[in-house]
Write a structure and sequence with these properties.
Blueprint: H1 2-15, E1 30-38, E2 44-46, E3 52-59, E4 62-70, E5 76-77, E6 83-90, E7 93-100, E8 103-112, E9 116-120, E10 126-132
Antiparallel strand pairs: 1-2, 1-3, 1-10, 3-4, 4-5, 4-6, 6-7, 7-8, 8-9, 9-10
Amino acid sequence: MKRLLISLLGLFFFSCVEKVEVSELNHLNGYWQIAKVETAEGEEKEYKANENYDYFEFKNKTGFHKKVRWQPNGKFLTDDLQEQIQTVENKDGLYLEFSSSFGKHKDKVVKISDKELVLEAENGNENYYSKVDVNGETTK
């Protein structure tokens, strides 16, 4: 009986989670810095300082992602490597499908706002990002 109650409560809370809508992906554009990773096993790793950023440019369900490195002069060092992004929607939620000449992977968009991004990787890890302004400061 106790297991049934726990299962029902879990199902109730899981069904109350709001799905991310495609229209919310307009928040994706810009610079993001990883703040922490929660592994599927429950471990947590925080990133207090990182000079590498993730840059996203996204419009009409497609876009690209690239890694950039912040420089002390306030500019970003970039290269030609980037991943193309396609939006994939299904009953489980909204996904970003990344592809490049090095491979493909798909991350579920758990949460997105103008300040926070949470992506769940295929291995179950949740990656938490904070939006940064062009001067390299994390938005609060």
